[in-house]
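Interim report to the steering committee. The following record documents the input for Metal ABC transporter ATP-binding protein (248 residues).
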Amino acid sequence: MSEPIIEMKNVSFQYEYTQVLNNISFKVNEGDFLAILGPNGSGKSTLLKILLGLLKPQSGEIKLFGQPNETFRQREWIGYVSQKSNAFNSGFPATVEEVVKSGLTKKVGMFKRIPKDALLQVQDALKAVGMERFSKKNIGELSGGQQQRVFIARALIAKPKILVMDEPTVGIDHENVQSFYDMLYSLNKEQNITIILVTHDVDTVSNRISHVACLNQTIHFHGYKQEFDEISQEQLDKWQGHAVRKIH
Ligand code: ADP
C-alpha cells in the first residue's frame, strides 16, 4: 500500500473578507496522478498556495510526507510549475538550457556552486520532457506547450517527489494535449513522481490521470478517474455551478 504524502484534514481558509475553502479533507498517495477540477474562483489556486506553504489556513491540519506542515522543511520535494511560466516572447534572452539550469539554484542555494554535472542533469531533465533537441534554442522561440515542458524540466532538476501544476494545458494546441499528458504519465510511472494539476477544463482531463477531485470551496468528490466518469452531468453542475462540461 502506498503511503499518503499529503493529508489535509478540515482545512478552512479565508482572505480578509472572503471565505474560500471550507472544511477540505483529502489525501494524496505516493504515485497518484490527480486532477483538481473547479470553476474560476472555486479556490484552486488558494489550495495550491496552501500546499506550497505560501498561505496558512485559519483552521485544520496538514501533513506533508507524514510531517506537520509547520515543521516540514523539505520544500524542494514539491516542485511547482505556474500557469504564467509559458509566456516568454521571442526576444527573451535565455536559452532552454539556461532556464532549466536556473532550477538548480533553488536546490543548492543562490550563492553555492552549481554542481559539475549540472549540464548532464539539464540534459536528463530535458530528455524526460522530450525537449533535449531544443537545449540551445531561445526559450521565446518555442510554442506555449514546448515552453511548458521546459518549465517542467526546470522543476524536475531539483528532483521533486511531487509536481504541482496550475492549468498546465493552457496554451497547448488541442492536438498536442494528449502527448503532453503522455509525457506526464511517463514521469509519473517511470520516475514515480506524484502529479497534481489543477484545471477548470474537464475536457482536458485525460485517461492518463488516476484520480480526480472536484473543488468548489469544499471537495465535493475525490476518487478514481473511473468513478469520476460515472458522475452525471447534472450532479457535476450542482457541484461546479455549471462551469464544468463533461463530454463523453
Ligand atoms: P481559482 O484558482 O479556483 O480561480 P482562487 O483560489 O484564485 O480561485 O480564488 C478564490 C476566491 O478568493 C475568489 O473569490 C478570489 O476573488 C478570492 N481571492 C483570491 N486571491 C485573493 C486575495 N489575495 N485577496 C482576497 N481575495 C482573494
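The domain at 6-89+161-240 is CATH 3.40.50.300 (Rossmann fold). The committee is asked to note this result when reviewing the revised timeline.
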